[in-house]
Amino acid sequence: RASRTPGPGSPRGAVGTSPLVRRGGSSSSSRAPEVMLTRERYPVQRLPFSVVSEEDLAAFERITPGRVVTDPEELEASNVDWLRTVRGCSKVLLKPQTTEEVSHILRYCHERNLAVNPQGGNTGMVGGSVPVFDEIILSTALMNQVISFHGVSGILVCQAGCILEELSRYVEERDFIMPLDLGAKGSCHIGGNVATNAGGLRFLRYGSLHGTVLGLEVVCPAPPPQVCTLLHPQVLADGTVLNCLTSLRKDNTGYDLKQLFIGSEGTLGVITAVSILCPPKPRAVNVAFLGCPGFAEVLQTFSTCKGMLGEILSAFEFMDAECMQLVGHHLGLVSPVQESPFYVLIETSGSRAGHDAEKLSSFLEHVLDFGLVTDGTLATDQRRVKMLWALRERITEALSRDGCVYKYDISLPVERLYDLVSDLRARLGPQAKHVVGYGHLGDGNLHLNVTAEAFSASLLGALEPYVYEWTAGQQGSVSAEHGLGFKKKDVLSYSKPPAALQLMQQLKALLDPKGILNPYKTLPARA
Ligand SMILES: O=C(O)CC[C@@H](O)C(=O)O
Ligand SMILES: [Zn+2]
Question: How far is CA 99 from CA 58, 239, 245, 381, in A?
Answer without folding.
Answer: 20, 10, 13, 42
